[in-house]
Structures are given as C-alpha cells and as structure tokens.
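Structure ticket #2291
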Amino acid sequence: MKAEEDNPTHAIYRWTALDAIALPVIFLSRIRHCAGYGVQSPTDYAFVREVIYEHGDYSLYPELLAGSRKSAWMERKIAKLLLRISNYAQAESIATSGPITPMMHRALRLGCRKSRIIPYVASAPPSPLIIIADIRKEGREEWKALLQRPNIIAYDLHYIGFAFHDAGRYGEVHIVNFY
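Resolution: structure written out below.
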C-alpha cells in the first residue's frame, strides 16, 4: 500500500511486460487511423494533426513534468496531450471521469487556468470538454453512454477518450492511433 501512495500513477499507465506484446498489437490494429486518416471534417482533421500529434515543445512542459520521475511514460504522454487539449479548448468547465492522476489534473489546470474541473455526470448537461480515462475497462460504460448523446465530437485514443460538445454539429466518433 505504501508503494501506491508514493507513486500515484494508476495501473493502466504503468508499463508491464505484457505491454511489450500488447502495444504493438494495438498499434497495428489501429494503423489505418494514423495521422488523421479517416477524419473527414477539416476542423477535426486539423485538431488531430495540430493538437493530438503535436511533437513540438510547449513552454509549460517543464512545469508540468517537474518532479514526475516516478510517473510512467504513458502517464507523461497523456498528461502532455491533456495540456495541449485544454490549451486548445479554453473551456469554462472540463468534466473528467476515470483514473485521472494528479499529473493529468495539473495538466488540465496549466492548459487553461480559468477552467473548472468537475466530475463527469452522465445525466448532467454536457460540459464543453469531457475526458474519460480508461475507456476500455473502468470508464467503458460511461464512454458508451457519452457516444449516444447528440452533438458530441468524440476522440477514442484507446487508453483515454475525450469529447467536445458542439450544438451546431452532428455527433462523430474518431478513432486515433495515439502511441
């Protein structure tokens, strides 16, 4: 129990020996969704290319990663992504569900300091940005319910899913190969 308190990284973000086999299989099963292929909307395609697949350095990365030597590589990668997404969205509220670690919470705060981070409740009116972690296990039912809502533009990154509520658009789900 003491080890978990020292390392707040959730189990899905830690590297295991099984991941050496699983990650290449997952990558190959999603290879047709690399680099925004299959995304028809120009704005969604630009989002995938310029936010999700951004490889440049943000000025906030050092502040985000300070003291994160114990965190897993996947947690750091997802935290950087969440920083970019919250910076892009500049949403007044961000609803989260699932195993959001302290580093990921910090990333959301750094990306948009004016945002309120609230727990996701399926029956509540949708927030402009909704993030559900571990959409394959813990957050599976919430993710499926979210995809049924109208006007949701969702991105499935295998480990984590996020959605924007846009009343002016029909709902879409984009699968993105994020590894």
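Closing remark: The first strand starts at residue 93 and ends at 97.
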